[in-house]
Amino acid sequence: MNATILDIAAEVPRQTLLDRVAAYERDAILVALATNRGSQAAAARALGIPVHMLSHRLEKHGLLEPLREARRARSRRARGARPAATLETSV
Known about the structure:
single chain; 5 helices; Arc Repressor Mutant, subunit A; mainly alpha
């Protein structure tokens, strides 16, 4: 049985083209960052865009702050410090 374009279109979730492009862009950025171990410079090279453009896209998709937090957490672990949320003061 041959599916028509209308049959295929009926199965596709209703999203605007801009929503689909944004989701594709976000996924591509996440893959590039994961592939390059979080290095923004290397991810930008892999994506073929300047670093400042990647930084703008990270901010646009709400990824810049989580990336910074992950970097801080890695830095704390490398120094052997406990995460800030678990630090306790003794009285």
